[in-house]
């Protein structure tokens, strides 16, 4: 079944000085989702240079505003992806993984796999494949509390495991770190999804099972069949919607995601 998703994003920043800005907010063109209408307006007008994003999923755009900038992004995306039945999927033997998937077994900035490996094995080591991923997801949903402002830019999956609270990126980081520690490749996904509260750029995970990537949201807010992927990466550091190489102040930000019935 296809789902039409409408997107409306507004960003407004004041720059303290002229500086490069790397932005990733546009829906990616991928199997399972088709970008049918799109508009990206930068004010004041200026040069925008698009480059491929991580794993060639979506694009990043370079800006170089002087005093400040506003961005208006609108799109309509048709999602035909079906939600996976994780418990029915098998894990791939590690030596047979594609070369580009191997990095998603390893520790990254926010996902200290080595630190959480023993915990992962003690808690979930008796299972395998998608059944194990489902168990990890259910454990996180049952043991974490979604608390806005509970984390910050340096919070890791270990911090979240200890505090038992966080926001969507923290849920995703913990899921990624635990399943990597169990021998399942996992990566961070930035996305838009209807029903996310509060409405914002959403973070969830993808796990590699039975020869492909499958979306998983430990918060339970996003339905993979209605999720619009922006980009992917090792963790949140690879999928930031804005990276500003200088000083800036946020004036306003809004993200609207609608489901066309």
Structural description of this entry:
This protein is of the alpha+beta class and 261 residues long. It has two domains: 3-80 and 241-260, Immunoglobulin-like, CATH 2.60.40; 86-237, C8orf32 fold, CATH 3.10.620. Helices cover 18% and strands 36% of the residues. It is built from four helices and 14 strands. It has helices at 113-124, 129-143, 157-163, 168-181, and strands at residues 3-15, 21-23, 33-43, 49-52, 59-63, 68-79, 145-146, 165-166, 186-192, 202-209, 212-216, 228-233, 242-244, 248-260. The chain has a four-stranded antiparallel beta sheet with strand order 3-6-1-14, with no helix packed on it. Strands 4-5-2-13 form a four-stranded antiparallel beta sheet, with no helix packed on it. α3 links the parallel β7 (145-146) and β8. The model has no long low-confidence stretch (mean pLDDT 96).
């Amino acid at each position: 079944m296809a789902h039409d998703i409408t997107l409306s994003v507004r960003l407004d920043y004041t720059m303290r000085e002229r500086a490069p800005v790397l932005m990733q907010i546009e829906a990616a063109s991928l199997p399972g989702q088709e970008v049918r209408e799109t508009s990206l307006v930068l004010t004041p007008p200026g040069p925008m240079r698009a480059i491929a994003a991580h794993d060639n999923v979506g694009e990043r755009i370079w800006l170089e505003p002087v005093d400040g900038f506003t961005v208006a992004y609108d799109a309509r995306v048709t999602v035909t992806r079906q939600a996976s039945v994780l418990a029915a999927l098998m894990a791939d033997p590690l030596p047979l993984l594609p070369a580009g998937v191997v990095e998603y077994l390893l520790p990254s900035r926010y996902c200290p796999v080595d630190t959480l490996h023993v915990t992962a094995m003690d808690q979930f080591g008796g299972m395998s494949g998608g059944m194990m991923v489902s168990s990890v997801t259910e454990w996180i949903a049952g043991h974490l509390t979604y608390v806005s402002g509970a984390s910050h830019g340096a919070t890791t999956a270990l911090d979240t495991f200890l505090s038992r609270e966080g926001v969507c990126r923290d849920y995703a980081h913990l899921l990624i770190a635990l399943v990597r520690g169990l021998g399942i490749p996992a990566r961070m996904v930035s996305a838009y999804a209807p029903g996310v509260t509060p409405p914002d750029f959403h973070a969830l995970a993808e796990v590699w099972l039975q020869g492909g990537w499958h979306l998983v949201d430990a918060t339970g807010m996003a339905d993979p069949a209605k999720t619009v992927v922006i980009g992917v990466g090792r963790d949140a550091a690879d999928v930031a919607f804005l990276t500003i190489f200088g000083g800036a102040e946020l004036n306003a930000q809004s993200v609207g995601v609608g489901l066309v019935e």
